[in-house]
Structures are given as structure tokens and as C-alpha cells.
Amino acid sequence: MLLFFLLWRIPVVQFNFGGERYYLKETDFTLQWIHSVEKEQWLEFYERDGDSLLLAETKFKTYGAGVPSDGKIIPSKDGYVHMEIGRLFKEMNLTVSQNAQTTIKTANKEIPLYDYTEDYEMVTITIEFIDLWDYMRGNKL
């Protein structure tokens, strides 16, 4: 049984900031923030895809700075523009701030990253395969 805990590796979404690593075991999450120019909520929907993050879709209210130009528009009636993206990332670097209210959402929880970081701190997000033992005793978001 001990060998199982020492050798079994599980995929996690790793958030690295403040000299610490935090793990999210869920296979998908939403990144939500307030856009700095439009002052509107913006959402990006990510999925774990092997050892990469897949930006599956984005959702925003107004076109402006930073809006993707090559995504497929998905019809919707909720006041948002929905856009299919389908872009893979090995690593994502994100600046978190109180103004943007950067938040991670999963099916079961909402994690206000701006409460866990310094204002304008950089957060690196990757997919990592870690020992089950490390996950059991590690920092989970």
C-alpha cells in the first residue's frame, strides 16, 4: 500500500505563486476577471488535456483590447459573446490583482486568487503529474 502512495502519479492543475505550489485536481476550471479597459466580466474555460491546458471557450460582453480575432462565435442569448477557441498552452502566466478580481471557478468552489496573492503578483499555471503522496499532503485550492 505504501508503494502505491509513493509511485502513483496523478495529473493536477498547478498554481505557482508566492513561493508555494497549489493543486487543483479537477479536470476543468473557469478563469474569471474584470477587464481593465471595458470594466466588464470576462470568462475563459480551461480543460486539462494531457500535459497541457486547453482554452476551450471564452465569454465576454464587449469587443475591445485583447479579444481573440480567430475564434468561432457560438450563438447565445445571455448577453455575452461566446467564442470557441481550442488553443493549447504548456504554461500560462497570469497577473492577479484586486482590481481585476481574478477568480478560479470549478463545479464545486470559487477561489478568489486575489485574496491569496499580493496585488499584481504573477501566477504560473501548468499541468503537473505529482505523486499521490505529495497531493495528499500538499496545498490544495
TrEMBL record:
This is DUF1850 domain-containing protein.
